[in-house]
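Fold it.
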Amino acid sequence: MVHHIVMFRLQDTNGKTAQELAFEAKALAEKLPETVESIRGMQVCVNSEAADQTNYHIALICTFDDYAGLDAYQNHPDHKAFGKFIAGIRAEGGRACIDYED
C-alpha cells in the first residue's frame, strides 16, 4: 500500500477565516473517493480550534494500492479542481507532503 499524507496551512481570505475555509476544503476533499477510483481510503482532518493555531489547518491521509493509483489520483480532474481551490486559500509555503509504502 502507498500512503499519501498532505497538510495545508491556510490564510484568511474572501471574508472567511482559515478555520472556516479548512472545513470547506474538508467537505470538498471528502467527495473525492466518490469519483477517484484509485483511492482505497481517505481521512480528512481539520486542526482543532483548541489546538495550537500555528499548526497546519487541514490534512489529507490517503491510501492507494500502488504509485500508479497515487498518480491516477493526482491527475484526476476532481483532484485538480480541489488543488485549484486549495491554491487560492493556501498560505505561502503552506504545504507539506510525504508518500510512503508499507
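The longest strand covers residues 90-101.
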